């Protein structure tokens, strides 16, 4: 089964191109489990694209393939017009995962500086300036000397976002970064991420289980089917920018949430799973 036609991105320049991507994992006894099948997707430079689907559909696997953390079994992956592996070598990526993965013995400032310390060619003054800019961008300029254990979960994730952006990557990959946070903190960080996105122009691919989150953040939402993961539908999000709390109360927002939910229900075939998704505002 081939993937659905992909809506052309708003930008003529492509940040990511996936063609015929397939991923299977070997299992005991010599057989294999197919995680992804025939994924084709173009993402334009500067887009904010969310991947959503039931648990086990391969969203995170697809994100890791784009980031060259795992290799596809078949198909091609290009980032900024080059193979994903070369893009990783060229440091085209920033990555943020559900756990912030900060070093507790390093201060906030030192955690954010770490990628620059690992790079060559950046003078100390330039590194310090860039770190200050990123901490100011995520609203943590007053917490440079704190250690991670002195911060809330939401603040730790902001440190992780600053660290991912400090070397100015062209592409930011985010794998359920707010999944462990309470709803109010999550909504607040959604707004902050959009401000960072607007100011940096970085292309973002965002994995989430939350339908409202996907709609609020995205320029497009990619709906995936149960395993083996395929792209079942791509929904353009035409909400005006900037997104605000009023956005969440608009009629169009609720229409788009319903549209994404119905696309997910179609994959689940209705029934109890869909009812639970409606109740929880998420999926799988």
**CATH-derived architecture of the domain at 14-92 and 169-280:** 3-Layer(aba) Sandwich
Helix and strand pattern: EEEHEEHEHHHEHEHEEHH
**Record field, number of beta strands:** 10
CATH class of the domain at 14-92 and 169-280: Alpha Beta
Distance between the termini: 23 Å
Q: How much helix, percentage-wise, in residues?
A: 25-40%
The side-by-side strand order for the widest beta sheet comes to 6-7-8-3-9-10
Question: Beta fraction of the residues?
Answer: 15-25%
Radius of gyration: 19 Å
Q: How many DSSP helices?
A: 9
Shape: globular
Q: Give the oligomer, counting copies of the same chain as homo and different chains as hetero.
A: single chain
Query: Can you tell me the CATH superfamily of the domain at 14-92 and 169-280?
Result: P-loop containing nucleotide triphosphate hydrolases
Q: What is the CATH topology descriptor of the domain at 14-92 and 169-280?
A: Rossmann fold
Structural category is: alpha/beta
Main pleated-sheet profile = 6 strands, mixed
Low-pLDDT parts are 1-11, 270-284
Overall average pLDDT: 87
Task: Give an account of the 3D structure.
The protein is an alpha/beta fold. The protein is built from nine helices and ten strands. A six-stranded mixed beta sheet has the order 6-7-8-3-9-10, sandwiched between helices. Strands 2-1-4-5 form a four-stranded antiparallel beta sheet. It is globular, with a radius of gyration of 19 Å. The chain starts with 13 loop residues before the first strand and ends with a helix.
